[in-house]
Every structure is written in structure tokens, then in C-alpha cells.
Amino acid sequence: MTSLVSPADLTALSGQLEQLPLPQALLHLTESFPGGTVLSTSFGQEDQVLTDMIMRFDLPVRVFTLDTGRLFEETYKVFQRTVERYGRKIEVYFPDALAVETLLRERGPFSFYESLDNRKECCRIRKVEPLRRALAGAQCWMTGLRTEQSETRNQLPALTWDESFGLYKYNPLHHWSLSEVEDYLQHHRVPYNSLHDRGFVSIGCQPCTRAIRPGEDSRAGRWWWEHNTNKECGLHDR
Ligand code: SF4
Predict the structure, then answer these.
(1) Quick one: CATH architecture of 7-208?
(2) What is the pTM of this model?
(3) Which of 12, 126, 184, 188 has the most CB atoms around its CB within 10 Å?
(4) Strand ranges across the sheet with 37-40
């Protein structure tokens, strides 16, 4: 599959996308990468905004999720409600069974609390390797990342080239505030994870996610035992 744009056209395409309201920008993106645009969802609020736009406007975007095997029951419930609401399938990528068996046998079920290396190894097995399979053949990866989510994301551009995975990465909500996201979900009656009503903002695996306190940044509930600068799992390092 060949792309209609090269890395040299990044600035031009980025400018075009910025001029357009969503979801017209998403449509323009799918026309720029015919058959090659994907959305990764963890069923968080931002992902649900994009899923709603893609599914209501029937945009040709492949939507997938990574089932790490350690997700909250509430996350599976919003997954189910999303499929029921829109009637469209969501692809699921699971970690390699042998790698998980080895990880648990060699390091135990809670090794991620013991060191940063252990935590990154668990994320590599359960998230990064499945993501690499999910992105194979894609040209543009759409995400729900926002600049205000954490200090590691405060320079986030709308469109960038992801060197790790060798594709374009589009963050259409990069300048949205949390209240804009919440207003959208409410206005369009989009299913959302009930944990958001209990102080959870950024929701990942159950053992590595907690609710946040007033004033904390939205990623503070992820790997809360680590320093802020380390709080990425290898999916969004750049
Ligand atoms: Fe493992 Fe925690 Fe990373 Fe999930 S978030 S893959 S449980 S270390």
C-alpha cells in the first residue's frame, strides 16, 4: 500500500487538517491514506469521542483495542456497550500467550511494582508487541492524546511522523480540554467508562491505575509509584 503523502508533506497536511472542523478533518485524513487509517482505543473518554465520530459518520477507519489481560471489568463493559450502540466490530489484539506465561512464571504476577525495567517489560509484552501487530500495514495511526494530559505530552503536535512504528500519527484532540471532551460525550450520549464517575481519568490496566485527587494531572493515576517523566508505556513515547 502506498501513501499519497510523504514525510516532506507533513507540514502541508497538518495545516489542512487544522483548518477543518472535526469530523471533516477525519474524512480528509482517510482520503489522504485510503484504507490505511486506524484508531487505537482503550475506551477512554477521548477515544470514545473519536469512535463516535468514526462510527456515526461511517468513516473507513479500522478501530482496534489492545486487551492486555489486566483490564478493569468496567472497561469491558464500555467495550460491549460501544459495539451494541454502533453495530460495528472492534478488532482486538491480545499479547503473545507464551510471553505472558514466561513473564508470570519468571517474575510473578505483580513484577511491575518492583522496578521500572519490570514494568516496561510487562508493557512491552502486553501492549507494545500487540500494538506493532495491530499497526502492521497502516499508514496513519489516530489517537485520542491531548496536550494537557501530562507534562510528557505538553509538546504534542496534531500530526507527526512516528519513527518507532514507521507511520503518521494524528492526534485530532490534541488541543481539546477535558471539559470539551466530557461535554461532547454528554451531548452525543456516547457510552463511557463508569470509572470516570469515580475519579479515574486516564484508565489503563487495573493494577496500574488509580483515581486521581483534585489538582493532580490526569496521568497521575497511572503508575503512581513512578516519577512523572517515566509515565509512558512505549505506545506513545514520541
Ligand atoms: Fe503490565 Fe501494568 Fe503495563 Fe498493564 S500497565 S501492561 S499491567 S505494567
Answers:
(1) 3-Layer(aba) Sandwich (3.40)
(2) 0.91
(3) 126
(4) 91-93, 62-66, 37-40, 140-142, 167-170, 159-162
How do beta strands 159-162 and 167-170 pair?
antiparallel
Which atom of ligand 1 is nearest to 206's Cα? 7
* Ligand 1 probe mutation, 42, 127, 203, most atoms within 8 A of CB: 127
Domain edges within the chain: 7-208
Q: What is the largest CA-CA distance in the chain?
A: 52
Q: Is 123 a catalytic residue?
A: no
Q: What is the pLDDT of residues 145-177, one digit of tens each?
A: 998 876 665 668 889 999 899 999 999 999 999
Q: Residue 77 corresponds to which cell in the numbers above?
A: 463493559
Q: List pLDDT tens digits, range 31-71.
A: 999 999 999 999 999 999 999 999 999 999 999 999 999 99
pLDDT reported for residue 41: 98
Instruction: Please name the amino acid found at residue 36.
Output: G
